[in-house]
Amino acid sequence: MNWKETLGAIAPTIATALGGPLAGAATKFLAGKLTGDENSSIEDIEQAVLGASPEQLANLKNIDYEFQKEMEKLKIDVFKIEADDKKNARQEHKQSDMPAILSVSLSLTIAAIVYMLFYIEPPEGAREVLFMLLGVVVKEWGGSMQYWFGTTRSSSEKTRLLK
């Protein structure tokens, strides 16, 4: 598990903020609490999270709560910002064929890689690379399918139908 996954499991508010427009504020807040220096590097934060004792990991929950309270004082909803960002992306691409083209392309790429793995003998050492490539493409394919079948997409379709 990498440090961001660990942080996401223990401190979801800060982890969400790190992936959005509040990344700078979240990084400074987290660095200040973990290392005592708001200007610590990402590597310092990573080492602090990965090298944390069970007590320090439990303290991450408190740090997340403090960050949440700070954001509430400023009337900032970290999760709403993330949801709005995704909503805006869908609105921007509503009339575009590109999401469909990318989804179909990823599906065809998966089919081609699976076909190559089972029916064509790859060169020496290439089989492992194909498996790695398959894993990466399947992960991205999952995201593209979530666009089409995810709850946000179906929710926006229901809203459109209700209007």
Describe the structure.
With 163 residues, this protein is mostly helical. The protein is 80% helix and 0% strand. It has helices spanning 3-10, 12-18, 23-35, 42-50, 54-73, 78-92, 98-119, 126-149, 151-162. Helix 3 (23-35) crosses helix 4 (42-50). The termini are far apart. The mean pLDDT is 79.
Provide a short characterization of the protein structure:
With 163 residues, the protein is mainly α. It is built from nine helices and no strands. The model has no long low-confidence stretch (mean pLDDT 79).
Task: Give the overall average pLDDT.
Answer: 79
The number of distinct helices, counting runs of at least 4 residues, comes to: 9
Are there runs of 5+ residues with pLDDT below 50, and where? none
Q: Give the biggest beta sheet.
A: none
**End-to-end Cα distance:** 44 Å
The helix fraction, in percent, is over 70%
Bulk shape: flat
Give the strand tally: 0
Assess the beta-strand content as a share of residues: under 5%
Structural class: mainly alpha
Return the string of H and E elements: HHHHHHHHH
Radius of gyration: 21 Å
Report the oligomer. Answer: single chain
